Amino acid sequence: MFLKQLTEKKMISIDYYSNGTLQTIKGRVHRLNLLEQILQLKDEKQKTFVIQLSGIRQIY
Fold first, then answer.
1. For residues 57 and 60, what is the distance between their CA atoms, to the nearest angstrom?
2. Given a cut of 90, is residue 9 above it in pLDDT?
3. Tens of pLDDT along 18-47?
4. Secondary structure, 3-state, 1-60
5. Nearest to 7, CA basis, from 59, 57, 43
6. In the structure, what pLDDT confidence band is assigned to residue 5 with cuts at 50, 70 and 90?
């Protein structure tokens, strides 16, 4: 599944749904919390984004 891609230390792009709209973000995984089902991603400018795992559409 996509969890293997989340453990790598390279830049990834994620398509995810946020408030009913499809968003795309590119960055590195900062933190993965499986208990709360969230993923924290840091982009090139070190800005942190929180994404619900259930909203992820595609990882590449």
1. 10
2. no
3. 999 999 999 999 998 989 999 999 999 999
4. CCHHHHCCCCCEEEEEEECCEEEEEEEEEEEEECCCCEEEEECCCCCEEEEEHHHEEEEC
5. 59
6. low
* Phi, psi (rounded to 5 degrees) for 54: -70, -20
* Single-letter residue type at 54: S
φ, ψ for residue 17, nearest 5 deg: -95, 130
Q: Which domains are seen in the chain, by residue range?
A: 2-59 (2.30.30.520)
Q: Evaluate if pTM is beyond 0.90.
A: no
